[in-house]
Amino acid sequence: MDQRRTVRHLRAQGRVQGVGFRAWAVAEAGRLGLDGWVRNRRDGSVEAVVAGPPERVEEMVRLFRRGPALARVERLEEEAWDGDPGPGFHVLPTV
Predict the structure, then answer these.
(1) Is the dihedral of CA 80, 69, 35, 52 positive or negative?
(2) Which residue among the candidates 11, 15, 39, 40 is catalytic per the annotation?
(3) Pick the catalytic residue: 8, 11, 15, 22?
C-alpha cells in the first residue's frame, strides 16, 4: 500500500441514523476523493472505513465529528484499520 495512504475506521454515535448520514458520507468522500464504505449498525451507530491521502482522511474525520445538518454526533471512535477497502466509496448493508 502507498505510504501516503491512510486508512481509518470510524464509528459515530448519537443521532446519526435517519438523518441522511450515509448519503452525506458518500457525497463528502466523493468530494474528497476517498475510498471506503459506510453502513448503519443495529446498535444505532454509523460505521465507516475511509482511505486516501492522510490530509483528506483527516478532513473526513473532522467532518464525521459534526455529521450532516440533522445529525448530532455525541461520540466518534477512530482507529487505524489494517486493510484496503478497495476503490470507490459506497454504502454497505446494515449489520
Answers:
(1) negative
(2) 40
(3) 22
Residue 93 domain flag: no
* 56 noted as active-site residue: no
Domain contains 88 = no
> Which pLDDT value is given to residue 36?
98
40 is catalytic: yes
Per-residue three-class SS string for 66-81: HCCCCCEEEEEEEEEC
State the Cα–Cα distance between residues 75 and 80, nearest whole angstrom. Answer: 17
- Supply the pTM of this predicted model: 0.94
Question: pLDDT digits over 18-31, tens only?
Answer: 999 999 999 999 99
User: In sequence order, what are the beta bridge partners of 75?
Assistant: 13
Overall domain count for the chain:
1
pLDDT in tens, 63-87: 999 999 999 999 999 999 999 999 9
At 43, which CATH number? 3.30.70.100
